[in-house]
Automatic annotation (TrEMBL):
<comment type="subunit">
    <text>Homodimer.</text>
</comment>
<dbReference type="InterPro" id="IPR027417">
    <property type="entry name" value="P-loop_NTPase"/>
</dbReference>
<protein>
    <recommendedName>
        <fullName>ATP-dependent dethiobiotin synthetase BioD</fullName>
        <ecNumber>6.3.3.3</ecNumber>
    </recommendedName>
</protein>
<keyword id="KW-0460">Magnesium</keyword>
<feature type="binding site">
    <location>
        <position position="116"/>
    </location>
    <ligand>
        <name>Mg(2+)</name>
    </ligand>
</feature>
<feature type="binding site">
    <location>
        <position position="55"/>
    </location>
    <ligand>
        <name>Mg(2+)</name>
    </ligand>
</feature>
<feature type="binding site">
    <location>
        <position position="16"/>
    </location>
    <ligand>
        <name>Mg(2+)</name>
    </ligand>
</feature>
<keyword id="KW-0963">Cytoplasm</keyword>
<keyword id="KW-0479">Metal-binding</keyword>
<keyword id="KW-0547">Nucleotide-binding</keyword>
<feature type="active site">
    <location>
        <position position="37"/>
    </location>
</feature>
<feature type="binding site">
    <location>
        <begin position="205"/>
        <end position="207"/>
    </location>
    <ligand>
        <name>ATP</name>
    </ligand>
</feature>
<feature type="binding site">
    <location>
        <position position="55"/>
    </location>
    <ligand>
        <name>ATP</name>
    </ligand>
</feature>
<keyword id="KW-0093">Biotin biosynthesis</keyword>
<feature type="binding site">
    <location>
        <begin position="116"/>
        <end position="119"/>
    </location>
    <ligand>
        <name>ATP</name>
    </ligand>
</feature>
<dbReference type="Pfam" id="PF13500">
    <property type="entry name" value="AAA_26"/>
</dbReference>
<comment type="pathway">
    <text>Cofactor biosynthesis; biotin biosynthesis; biotin from 7,8-diaminononanoate: step 1/2.</text>
</comment>
């Protein structure tokens, strides 16, 4: 499998917005991109009465590879809570091989798979398997989405340390404005830049309409350079 694993410093810090923006940018650079949210907890009914996860719908709307909602979000759960709890409420168990098989099946439909994690880096999927294990199994380079708010430096550095302890490569990170009232933002980004040991792919401000195109406009590199960097990382 070729692509990128997108994780974050916490839940609700913009992983899906960043993944959708990357999908948009890389497609514009000529790549056939498959965004995948393999595990998604929390569904609502759309205008057609279909139950769908909001993040899955957002990624599905961003892609142009002709994927179905089920191919973008193969394992969707109804309750908006930790995946292992949501699965238990539905009488299910999230098994390692089933999750990996679903990701691999969708990834075959394009050149690069953008696999978005759920919550932060270590979220339980069952009693013996979590999202850090999943990232390790996939062995993809990692993009870290850092939610800019109080405490983000600690959260980002601990996450980077945890993923490197698994033998994973931190390819880059994105600073995403979660708290628009946060002070000393520049100093926070500088501290992270000095310590994370990976390039900053972009600083995303608080946007009134965070469409994939609007978010992608704040990436630090042109889409062609992002694509070249991502392609090169697959052979390292």
């Amino acid at each position: 499998m070729k692509g990128l694993f997108i994780t974050g410093t916490d839940t609700e810090i913009g992983k899906t917005c960043i993944t959708a923006a990357l999908t948009h940018a890389l497609q514009n650079a000529g790549a056939r991109v498959v965004p995948i949210k393999p595990l998604a907890a929390g569904q609502t009914q759309d205008e057609h009465g279909q139950w769908v996860n909001e993040d899955v719908a957002q990624l599905h709307a961003a892609q142009n590879a002709g994927l179905s909602l089920a191919q973008v979000g193969p394992l969707q759960l109804r309750e908006a809570c930790a995946p292992h709890i949501a699965a238990r409420l539905e009488g299910q168990t999230l098994e390692r091989e089933a999750v990996l098989s679903a990701i691999r099946a969708s990834s075959q439909l394009g050149e690069l798979a953008l696999v978005e994690g759920v919550g932060g880096f270590r979220v339980p999927l069952n009693e013996h398997y979590d999202t850090a294990d999943l990232a390790q199994d996939l062995a993809l380079p990692v993009l870290l989405v850092v939610g800019l708010r109080l405490g983000c430096i600690n959260h980002a550095l601990l996450t980077a340390e945890a993923l490197r302890a698994r033998g994973l490569r931190l390819l880059g990170w994105v600073a995403n404005t979660v708290d628009p009232a946060q002070t000393h933002v520049g100093d926070n980004i500088a501290a992270l830049h000095a310590r994370l040991g990976a390039p900053l792919w972009g600083h995303i401000p608080r946007l009134e309409a965070p469409t994939p195109a609007a978010v992608a406009a704040h990436f630090a590199m042109p889409a062609a350079d992002l694509l070249q960097q991502l392609r090169s990382a697959q052979t390292v």
